[in-house]
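Before relying on records like the one below, remember that each one covers exactly one chain. Contacts with other chains, cofactors or solvent are not represented anywhere in the record.
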Amino acid sequence: MKLAAVTLASFVRPAAAVLVLLPLLLIGWAGAAALPLDQPLSQPLRNRETYQAVRDVSQHAQNAQTEDESSVRLMPRVNIDQDHLKICCLHANILDFYLNNILRQRDSMHPNMHRLKTDLTRVSEDLQSQGCNVTHYHDHHHAVEFRRKLNQMGGERGMNKAVGEIDILFTYLQDFCIQPRNNTAV
């Protein structure tokens, strides 16, 4: 009789635990399905290898900067209370400037540069296909300020500083170029 009671108890305890945990798991699963994560407007923005290439290239350029250069910031800070798509398109404009004027001149700077340029070109194309009119933001005060500071630094120093800040640009693109939850239209 004792053996039967022990056997029954050893079966009931795990079954009770499953009955307690099962609803919690189902609620968590259904909650995750009901609230999908924000989706990037371009897949390279969530690609681990792209992120690593951005970090490597940026760090390489930062290591070549003087102390004076590292205290200057080219990339303007944004007001995060603005419409995220507008912030995204502004930075798509700055990305377009990078692709056409900065990265084009830096082919041999770092072994990851080719991958970085390829992935960022894809991001630029994806954002334009999602509705970002990059020329619309050409005269935006942040884009103008970025180009003005770059010109003030001049030549090689300015180009190197801009490459060193590509991680800031990429972070802005990651943070603001997303399709919000439960929103199918961009």
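The chain is about 65% helix and 0% strand.
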